[in-house]
User: Which sequence fits this backbone?
């Protein structure tokens, strides 16, 4: 009677240490880190307005995350495997939370200092505000530092202790966490951006501006406090995981093989302690000499450059192409991309688990699916609308279309007496169906109403009578454009599903093309290269604020669709050579994972049989007596 109770108790203690609990905790960490990153990117405009800084400084703040991340990721990927990986992931989550908290700190410091200078000159407050952005940058560096151990150490931990056929499904679940985080981050950013930055210290009823006003500053600091709390909470489970786990599927044989594993672990620990640094350069040399691995990095860099352009500029591109609001476009993007991506990741992992797909077959599956999605993406060229008619930019003030990207005549006889700024982008729509870069350039003399309901009257450029009016924003497009937008998102749904089906098989090729002892370092080096070289094209095409904002309205659709298509087309060249090399080689990951696991299982079964054979009745009776006592 006592023996079964002891078994149940032991199983209950071991339950928390199973790989699935670690997978759940790591997925939550993925959600937290991607939530923080998305929120940070969404709040850049609010930070720029809050501290009254230039676009170049905003770019420096945004890039500071990569500084903290890239400085450590390769060394963390190597040295982390020699230490307690779950513990290091937990510490990383805490550091990310600390970074997020530091980024919110300027709001409280500025509020206290502003109260001290309230009776003084406004220039004092301005000087304080202009220097506080340094806290945000330093906090972002710390956040990037804290994120370094999560991906390489987490994935290598799963690969080491999960069944080889379950690993693709687990990686797919992690990818879902990367998708959920940005969704929550966008919702949090939208919520905080609609709250005034000083709502807790001023009477919001006295405000004369709305969130649509360019002078509005949202409560950017609130979201950073929430991100800090979420990151710290996700760190807690990692402090309770052991350094090593029994291989998935062998938990029931722990009692039989426990002593053997302890001896093996002690011997391995001595080897790691003795050679903690001497393997680094040989591992790096091995990775750089691995032609499949290096070709995969080249493929990833080209592919990621294309994807970053698409994802970064899709809201602005659709807003301009189809004349919809930013909120509506973001909602539609989430509705048509997230569900198929969820389904694709899970199905891709389940297929590889069900059929125990070899890495060579997985590479062919990923190649064919990705190529199919790439060819379908050319249909986006057919789903475009005409550019907005903007007087002085895309058309003349008489409504005659002009060539794009030429030296347009912004001023006209109807507005030369108004002394308008020609680099201001605050568009209005006239009742003649033509948009103007600002109410001043439309020749408007007065306005009625406030906020989004403001109407400009007596606009001399709109009509000859001088009584024509205009409203804020660009003019709406016709019903044909709405139909094309529907077709666009249907195609987005199809291509998102096909693309996500190819992600897991392709990523497993990366994991299995390197030796097991090099896996964590390989993941870190891959992440380093993609982050350094994966955003080059996006940087070249980024819109500037203020002066160059007006150019975005005529952003060439062929550039937005064509540049990613060209980059993705180039990425299939290294993919082709990967398939060719894999025909002749046996991937080290396949040998280590499948054959070694099978050998260990057979050895365990053999030991179990030997124990059963050598047990005599006297030994059994003696053991039963000890159990009862």
Assistant:
């Amino acid at each position: 009677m006592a023996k079964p109770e002891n078994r149940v108790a032991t199983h209950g203690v071991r339950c928390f240490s199973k790989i699935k609990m670690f997978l759940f905790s790591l997925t939550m960490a993925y959600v937290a880190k991607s939530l923080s990153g998305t929120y940070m990117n969404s709040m850049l405009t609010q930070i720029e307005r809050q501290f009254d800084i230039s676009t170049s400084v905003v770019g420096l703040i945004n890039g500071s995350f990569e500084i903290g991340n890239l400085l450590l990721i390769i060394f963390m990927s190597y040295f982390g495997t020699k230490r307690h990986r779950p513990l290091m992931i937990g510490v990383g989550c805490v550091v990310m939370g600390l970074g997020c908290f530091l980024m919110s700190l300027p709001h409280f410091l500025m509020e206290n200092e502003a109260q001290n200078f309230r009776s003084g000159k406004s220039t004092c407050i301005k000087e304080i505000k202009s220097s506080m952005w340094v806290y945000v940058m330093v906090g972002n560096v710390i956040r990037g530092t804290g994120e370094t151990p999560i991906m390489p150490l987490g994935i290598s931990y799963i690969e080491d202790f999960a069944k080889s056929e379950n690993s693709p499904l687990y990686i797919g679940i992690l990818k879902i966490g990367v998708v959920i985080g940005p969704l929550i981050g966008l919702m949090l950013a939208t919520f905080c951006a609609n709250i005034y930055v000083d709502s807790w210290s001023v009477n919001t009823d006295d405000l004369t501006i709305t969130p649509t006003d360019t002078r509005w500053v949202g409560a950017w600091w609130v979201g950073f406090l929430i991100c800090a709390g979420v990151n710290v909470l996700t760190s807690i489970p990692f402090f309770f995981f052991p350094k090593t786990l029994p291989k998935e599927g062998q938990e029931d044989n722990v009692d039989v093989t426990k002593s053997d594993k302890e001896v093996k672990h002690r011997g391995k620990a001595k080897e790691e302690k003795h050679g903690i640094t001497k393997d680094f350069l040989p591992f790096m040399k091995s990775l750089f000499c691995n032609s499949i691995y290096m070709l995969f990095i080249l493929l990833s860099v080209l592919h990621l450059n294309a994807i970053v352009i698409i994802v970064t500029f899709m809201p602005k591109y659709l807003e301009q192409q189809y004349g919809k609001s930013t909120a509506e476009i973001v909602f539609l993007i989430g509705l048509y991309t997230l569900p198929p991506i969820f389904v694709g990741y899970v199905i891709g992992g389940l297929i590889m688990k069900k059929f125990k797909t070899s890495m060579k077959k997985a590479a062919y599956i990923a190649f064919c699916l990705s190529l199919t999605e790439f060819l379908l993406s050319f249909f986006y060229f057919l789903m475009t609308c005409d550019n907005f008619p903007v007087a002085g930019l895309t058309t003349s003030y008489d409504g005659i279309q002009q060539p794009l990207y030429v030296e347009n005549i912004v001023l006209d006889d109807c507005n030369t007496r108004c002394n308008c700024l020609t680099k201001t982008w605050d568009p209005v729509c006239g009742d003649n169906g033509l948009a103007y870069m600002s109410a001043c350039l439309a020749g408007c003399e007065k306005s009625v109403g406030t906020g989004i309901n403001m109407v400009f009257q007596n606009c001399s450029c709109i009509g000859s009578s001088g009584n024509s009016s205009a409203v804020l924003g660009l003019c709406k497009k016709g019903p044909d454009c709405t139909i094309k937008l529907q077709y666009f998102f249907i195609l987005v749904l199809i291509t998102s599903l096909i693309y996500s089906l190819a992600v897991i098989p392709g990523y497993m090729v990366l994991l299995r093309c390197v030796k097991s002892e090099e896996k964590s370092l390989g993941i870190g080096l891959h992440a380093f290269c993609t982050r350094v070289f994966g955003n080059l094209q996006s940087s070249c095409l980024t819109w500037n604020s203020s002066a160059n904002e007006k150019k975005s309205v005529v952003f060439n659709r062929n550039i937005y669709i064509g540049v990613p298509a060209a980059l993705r087309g180039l990425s299939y060249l290294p993919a082709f050579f990967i398939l060719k090399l894999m025909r002749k080689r046996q991937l080290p990951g396949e040998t280590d994972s499948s054959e070694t696991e099978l050998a260990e299982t057979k050895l365990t079964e053999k030991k179990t049989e030997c124990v059963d054979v050598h047990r005599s009745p006297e030994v059994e009776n003696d053991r039963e007596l000890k159990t009862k006592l």
Summary: Residues 16-265 form a domain with the Growth Hormone; Chain: A; fold (CATH 1.20.1250.20). The radius of gyration is 30 Å.
